[in-house]
Design brief:
Layout: E1 3-9, E2 13-21, E3 24-29, E4 36-43, E5 48-53, H1 66-75, E6 78-83, H2 94-104, E7 111-117, E8 129-133, H3 144-157, E9 161-164, H4 179-185
Parallel strand pairs: 1-4, 5-6, 6-7, 7-8, 8-9
Antiparallel strand pairs: 1-2, 2-3
Length: about 190
């Protein structure tokens, strides 16, 4: 594989060449012998990972599906995404998780992982992490009374837990017509 050269951040931006082998960086120096691709003053950096996407499949493909979502991510320089579980049906069981995997497995243009949702109990599934909501507008609602139990059960799974942390009683149920109204309806004080 050719060595790529350009600007790299090594404590500060410097001219550098980067050598790869087997998909891994094995050397970074000012100059490396071998066939080179020179990007001049362009900054060379790793691709991005988006850890919070909503690709809407299954259930809302008319908004976006896994192919169009991962294609857009790739165009933007993102090579890995983590997709949220609030689909239709919500991904709150091993069965729903496995069905989603089967449906999307040949549609992705980039690497991906999936969150699993939690409703009443933590089901073991091959997800990257779990997700809950502290507001009732979602099937993955978890009351503050049940939060400790959920945290303990997720810990047993050895996976992270993402929490949509807004106090239910604080959120206005008025339909927002724009971003300003949305922010007013979900005031800073609602966040836990």
């Amino acid at each position: 594989m050719p060595v790529i050269c350009g600007k790299a951040y090594l404590g500060k931006l410097v001219n550098a060449c980067i050598k790869f082998e087997g998909g891994k960086i094995i050397d970074i120096k000012k100059d490396i012998a071998g066939e080179k691709i020179d990007y001049g003053n362009a900054v060379i950096f790793p691709s991005a990972i988006d850890v919070h996407v909503h690709f809407r499949e299954p259930g809302f493909e008319y908004k976006e599906d896994f192919f169009t979502g991962t294609k857009a991510a790739a165009i933007a320089g993102v090579t890995c995404i983590l997709d949220m579980p609030n689909n239709e049906p919500a991904i709150i069981s091993k069965k729903a998780f496995d069905e989603k995997v089967k449906k999307i497995k040949n549609k992705a243009c980039i690497d991906y992982a999936l969150y699993g949702g939690i409703k009443d109990k933590v089901e073991e599934m091959d997800c990257i992490a779990y997700k809950i909501f502290l507001s009732r507008d979602n099937e993955m609602f978890c009351s503050l009374n049940k939060l400790k139990e959920v945290l303990e059960n997720v810990k047993k799974q050895g996976k992270p837990l993402a929490i949509h942390a807004e106090l239910e009683d604080c959120i206005s149920r008025e339909k927002a017509k724009n971003l300003e109204e949305h922010n007013r309806n979900r005031a800073k004080q609602c966040e836990i």
